[in-house]
Amino acid sequence: MSDDHREGAGATDPREVTIPLAMLLAGIAVLFVRALVTEGSGGVAMALLGIGAEIVIGVPLAIVACFAAARVLDTDFGLLHTAVLKLAAAFIFPAAVAGIIPIGLLAWIVSLILYLGMLEKFFRLEPTELIVCAILIFLVRILAGVVVAMLVLA
Questions:
Q1: Domain extents for the chain?
Q2: SS3 letters for 4-21?
Q3: What distances in angstroms separate CA 93 from CA 21, 59, 71, 75, 139, one per listed residue?
Q4: Are 110 and 118 in contact (CB under 8 A)?
Q5: Which uninterrupted H or E stretch holds 101?
Q6: Considering the chain, what is the average pLDDT of its residues?
Q7: Considering the entire predicted model, what is its pTM?
Q8: What are the two backbone dihedrals, phi and then psi, of residue 25, each rounded to the nearest 5 degrees?
Q9: Contact at 8 Å (CB) between 17 and 119?
Q10: Which tens digits make up the pLDDT trace of 52-110?
Q11: Could you give the CA distance from residue 108 to residue 114 in angstroms, rounded to a whole number?
Q12: Residue 103 gets which letter from DSSP?
């Protein structure tokens, strides 16, 4: 990770708040529109409940997993509040984009590439840190999806 990030980038750096917030909101909007289009107005409430559950379960799990990995890898994500925002955006936006790709394997590949790209831009991680965090977020997303599916089907 570069020294400028370890010391904390200035509040005016768009990587810190503006870009992650925009990507997080864009991801949530895409998830909402996708639910509306695929489920129609009658089933959108159930789809949104599933999306909300995945966010409530998946985002905290991904954040905890990345912070645990950071401790093992001897790195950090900077200030807690901006790190949480960036990690939430890196969890939601790729999942939203993958959700509109109709081919499963392609959707997974695209989301993994987006995880790598967003984590690199937001945190300027070293290659090993980048790969570990991207894989952790990817696996947590799968786990969260399974948990949400089990809750919805129960």
A1: 14-153
A2: HHHCCCCCCCCCCCHHHH
A3: 10, 11, 25, 24, 15
A4: no
A5: none
A6: 83
A7: 0.79
A8: -65, -40
A9: no
A10: 887 888 888 888 888 888 888 888 888 888 999 998 999 899 989 998 999 989 998 99
A11: 10
A12: S
